[in-house]
TrEMBL record:
GO molecular function, one term: 4 iron, 4 sulfur cluster binding
Domain Serine dehydratase-like alpha subunit: 139-395
Protein name stated in the entry: L-serine ammonia-lyase
UniProt pathway annotation: Carbohydrate biosynthesis; gluconeogenesis
A GO biological-process term: gluconeogenesis
Entry EC number(s): 4.3.1.17
InterPro entries cross-referenced by the UniProt entry: ASB_dom_sf, Fe-S_L-Ser, Ser_deHydtase-like_asu, Ser_deHydtase_bsu
Catalyzed reactions: L-serine = pyruvate + NH4(+)
Cofactors required: [4Fe-4S] cluster
Record-annotated Serine dehydratase beta chain domain positions: 3-58, 70-110
PANTHER family from the UniProt entry: L-SERINE DEHYDRATASE, L-SERINE DEHYDRATASE 1
Amino acid sequence: MESMRELFKVGFGPSSSHTMGPQRAALKIKEMYPEATRFHVDLHGSLALTGKGHLTDYIIEKTFAPKPVDFSFKSEELPEHPNGMIVHVFQGDQEMKQIEVYSIGGGSILFKGDLAQEPVQVYKQNTMKEILHYVDEHGISLYDYVLENEGDDFDHFLSDILGAMFESVENGLKKEGLIQGKLKLKRVAKSMFQQAQNTRREADRERLFISSYAYAVSEENADGGKIVTAPTCGASGIMPAVLYYCYKQLHIEKKDLIKALAIGGLFGNVVKTNGTISGADGGCQAEVGTACAMAAATMAWIYELNNSLIEYAAEMGLEHNLGLTCDPVGGYVQIPCIERNGYGSLRALDAAMLAKQLGYLRKNKVSFDTIVKVMKETGKDLSSDYKETSLGGLAKEFGLS
């Protein structure tokens, strides 16, 4: 598996695959060809179909500036991934290079041809079964396992990530008004937070707090604000909501939240390695489902559950998002994405609670690795209309005038 540094990235919304990935690709190409005078970009598949709402053309044009760039939007997919593009590099009227590049989820990119590079493998183990066997055999914790592979200074990186997550929550809770785009969607996180403060019933109050935190980050993301991919921009509200809730309502210290973040990230890394975290590839089960599994594992660790029960919580978090479609209305990461983050954060809490209560009554028969495999197969079977193309589902029925 790759480093978790490739999973948690600080960047700007609204989409890790449609905004952050193309921006990284354009930056690299611009650095490689400083003599270029202009660019033409063919956006393919999901990048073409929802690129406008996800600001794909905007971020590429901004990155290549001041050199001009024009675009072609082509609905057919390139062979390697639904999020593909071909960048034509020109010097005057002469085409210097055609570069095929894919945005494969979570802001990660993959170049084809002579620019292709093999990802750096940091972990020797690739499945949760292998990881759990290793830590049991060596008598170490999951957090010690992460540091063993990432390096002792990795806690500093995680501290920065946690800080960026908390900043995105707090920024979102301060803001009011409309989110950019044709949907004219109103920000509600601040009002939800105020409702939570004024709610007497403890159970309702706690769930409102978590929801308001998830909405705060998701609204920031939808408006192009700074967030952390966890594992993607579209699902960036779930992990911060659970962690911020643990900090503010449960009074868990940051040094322990850093460890909890590492545990959640480990499960996200397994999904990224063996399944997919791309909505264009696997539907929203790959984004919100993975984030829910990560947050469930995080919460289970906070509950001081053993490794088997942490896996159980993560398995439930992903299992009960199987088949979740990605159908953003108008190509914006707003409806149903923001609400889904709030719902996903509550599901993560419930998964950890169920693992805590049920895990000691009977052994879970379904492994996390099994659910990752099923999620990947389910994603392959989903129609492309339900994988970040805005051609089916809610996006089709809602309509925009």
